[in-house]
Amino acid sequence: MLELKGVHAGYGVGQVLHDVSFTVAPGEVVALVGPNGAGKSTTLDVISGVLRPSRGRLAWEGQDLGRMSPAKVVTSGVAHCPQGRRVFPYMSTEANLRVGAYTRKDRSAVKAEVDEFLAAWPILDRRRSSNAGTLSGGEQQILAIGRSLMSRPRLLLLDEPSLGLAPVLISQVYEVLQHTMSERPLSVLLVEQNVVQALTLASRVLVLAGGRIVFEARAEDTDADEVASHYFEATNGNGTGQ
């Protein structure tokens, strides 16, 4: 289980997160939603070791994440799929997937899993030798998710997978996520501004506004209008997060 307890974090002298506490249980999908600048991406950066918390505790399967390097976080079973896709544009689709397995030594198993992922998504299989920069936005996002899965994570940190995509491409990306969740035991912390889409996948939703958790509910007990009302009410020009 992932647990954040009283986490504070920021950049330089600017505090972004203020006393953030929540959990993600094994096999659970938790959506972390909120307005721009609420601190959602900062939360993922803290969990993945990119940013050190100034106070509080982060634990994953009993391990203290607060002082781990990003590489150690990955080997502990956590993968971070960042905002903006960030594929390697001049590397092939297949090579991008292999990069995600850089911590693994089982080369034959990696090859089999790359082939399996591409077989599941023919739209990418047809472009496996093409430079990733030539793929469409939706194809790049699917590739970025696949690359994150190559490290065999037990927890996936997924930042804004629908950002900048047309509705039909968003549906394709969420189809990948639904397929992945059905195929393997995986916990997901999903950062999204598309609340309607997030609620189709998540079992629980958290609202982050001004660097603080201001609302929490089971997805089946709330809806997009209620979620949005909480983060707009809580945001009065205070958030400076990412």
How would you characterize the overall build of this protein?
The protein has a single domain, classed as P-loop containing nucleotide triphosphate hydrolases (Rossmann fold). It is 36% helix and 26% strand. It has 242 residues and is an alpha/beta fold. The strands form two sheets. The protein has a six-stranded mixed beta sheet with strand order 6-7-8-3-9-10, with helices on both faces. A four-stranded antiparallel beta sheet has the order 2-1-4-5, with helices on one face.
Features:
single chain; 242 residues; alpha/beta; Rossmann fold; six-stranded mixed beta sheet; four-stranded antiparallel beta sheet; 9 helices; 26% strand; globular; disordered C terminus
SSE map:
Elements: E1 2-11, E2 14-24, E3 29-33, H1 40-47, E4 55-60, E5 63-64, H2 70-75, E6 78-81, H3 93-99, H4 107-120, H5 122-125, H6 137-149, E7 155-159, H7 167-183, E8 187-192, H8 195-201, E9 204-209, E10 212-218, H9 224-234
Parallel strand pairs: 3-8, 3-9, 6-7, 7-8
Antiparallel strand pairs: 1-2, 1-4, 4-5, 9-10
Helix pairs in contact: 3-6, 6-7
Quick recap:
This protein has helices at 40-47, 70-75, 93-99, 107-120, 122-125, 137-149, 167-183, 195-201, 224-234, and strands at 2-11, 14-24, 29-33, 55-60, 63-64, 78-81, 155-159, 187-192, 204-209, 212-218. The protein is of the alpha/beta class and 242 residues long. Strands 6-7-8-3-9-10 form a six-stranded mixed sheet, sandwiched between helices. Strands 2-1-4-5 form a four-stranded antiparallel sheet, with helices on one face.
